[in-house]
Design goal:
Length: 642
Amino acid sequence: MTANVITFRSRSASREVGKALGFDQETAAKLASLMSAWEWKAPSDTLENSFKAAGLDIKHRRIAHYLQKCGEVLNLPRNLGQHSGGMVICQGHLDSVVPIERASMLGRTVVQWDKDDCSDMGIIKVDLLGLGMLAVLKDTAYLVPQYYGEQLDYAQLPQDVAVYETIEQADTVGLFQIESRAQMSTLPRTKPKSFADLSMQVAIIRPGPVTGKFVNPYIARRLGREPITYLHSSFKPFLERTLGVPLFQEQVMKIGMVAANLTGGEAEELRKAMGGKRSESIIAGLKNRLHEGMTANGFSAAAQEEVMRVLSTVKEFMFPESHAHSFASIAYSSAYTRYHYTAAYTCALFNNQPMGFYSPATIANDAKRHRVKIIPIDVQRSDWFCTLEELSENDRARYAGPFAVRMGLKYVKGLRQKVGDAIAEARIMEGPFASEYDLSRRVTAIKKLELTLLAKAGAFNWTGEKHHRRTALWNAERAGQTVGPLFENIPDEHELQTTSPLRHMTTEERLVADFESTGITLGPHPMAYHRVEMNAAGALTATSLRGMPDGVYTCIAGAVIARQRPGTAEGFIFLSLEDETGISNAIISPHLYERHRVTVTRGKFLRIEGTLQNQDGVINVRASAVHILTFSNIDVQSRDFH
């Protein structure tokens, strides 16, 4: 494998400096969590301002010293890491050229050079990337024949109009590549209707097209609002299919070759610059050559300047066309299987978490909105992984498809897989469990803490006579006690009790227990319990925004499920809020962020007021005020992309 040189970033610097200065681990972790990890760095995004926003006294001698040392170690080399997929292919003794060391993963070795150094030395590197979605599709292809009685061949999937309609509507939570906030905001505008359209859609949301300002012209031309033009007539043959806008690496290389007569080798230098650390130096080295070639070909000064602007986008990553086609194929396969085999796809998606843009809780809520029944964890029915169960006749009228998804024991936080497998094996070999005590005796590897975790997750609710979680916790506490070999197989008088002196959990307590123990609740969304309160405050549901006109002042509220501050967005932050009806999106300006830094970055439930943007089916709220909602102690986890 090729190496990566890992440097100190804000959080790693603050964490390590905290340790060096003698802060306890909890304090060091809290200080590290205050650091801004956004890709975009505003002038005010300093360690000092982060500490001020958190209410720390930066004049305190120890805090001031801490700040100073954090600043000094930023960007210094921290350790030699491993490239995510860069495999070195060689003939002969590689260690005679470059030092090789053992990787932390058994059976792997790493050269001590990064990909750029390897390239300079003529060493061949091939990227072999592992995609979680490939595992999802593989698992789905196993489930579909087993449960639906149909064969699923991804190489032979038909181009289904109904599938493309769901993509056009940005109904893409849990799908490959087209589930991000940026993709969802363009899909209703570009309306991909074919595989070629989908390939371009995958390619357009990349740093290169975004910084090159290719996205808006492409969308305007797709919508027929802007004529298709070309920077030079000689570019038409290779830009016509992308409406005159370069979306792929090869098109940028071709611009250089046609405009300035670059050779294949010189165009390859352009390709190497794409997304690389040395991109600016490569472009600078070709600048004179490009201008000479364009002048010889009769390009005007203005045209040359625009060509140079286009070529400068290679410093940001763009997809090669083959890569875009490959990813579009996976994206379509995920959309097709979710549309036609929703329960199987959802089951496979649960079994391969963590991956993608959203947490399992958001995936579960989206599945429920698609009328998929999800059944809770139950020691009498659940395996380690999530499984499919056939719906009853009554349920088939209420839910989509013939199957429900049974949550697996893997979602009980802190439960070991060998214990989960042992529970399933004991149930298969000797039948259902009669009680928490019975399970404890038959699954000898289980620890008392794991019994408690299962009880807290509601996994014992159907064990013996149906009972609530506090009774299960009461029983688990007793069943987990060691009694010695003489009495270990003899029931005691406590097993005969079917109740406990503990009161039932309230709705709020069950929600808190759900998220603490599994990260998911299968009952109503937390916001549903506060809808009356939110209605009184003027907060609209996510689905009701669709009928609101553009430009009205509105209010939304929900659990924060994603935060983004991409480097291409000039400091704007994008939040996704989820309520019981769906997902709404808010745009936070840099000015508003500065006034409410902690609220925006740390709030789990937010109420946001602002102006509604409803254009071409894409809905956002441009925020003017943001407030933390304190009505719940639920530990909702957001996926924050920096």
